[in-house]
Write a structure and sequence with these properties.
The protein has 105 residues and is an alpha+beta fold. Helices cover 29% and strands 10% of the residues.
């Protein structure tokens, strides 16, 4: 995807708290796009369908799977305007793992 074809302007109004340490933004303005790609939910299973028992490995694998899907249409993680995350049996430890993984990526 040509860089000039898509512009994502991340917005975090001053009157709201800073969400960046938590791996997200309050708003993203999308400009100059020609296509929208919807990617089905990507879980933590590897290419053989095996799911690690280690949650941090599941999260990393899910993002690797997402990257593979995006690569197939010449897009990157930086082209994502909206990301929905579902964590089964959500807790603070799992949230912190997700946040750290997103920050690294």
């Amino acid at each position: 995807m040509p860089q000039q074809a898509l512009q994502l302007n991340i917005k975090n109004p001053d009157n709201l708290y800073n969400p960046r340490p938590f791996g997200y933004s309050h708003m993203v303005e999308v400009q100059h796009f020609r296509r929208i790609i919807h990617v089905a939910g990507q879980g933590g299973e590897n290419s053989e369908g095996t799911l690690s028992k280690d949650f941090s490995k599941q999260v990393l694998q899910a993002f690797c799977n997402l990257k593979i899907a995006l690569d197939s249409v010449d897009a990157t993680l930086q082209n994502i305007a909206m990301l929905r995350v579902l964590i089964v049996h959500h807790d603070k430890e799992k949230l912190n793992i997700l946040i750290q993984t997103m920050r690294q990526l």
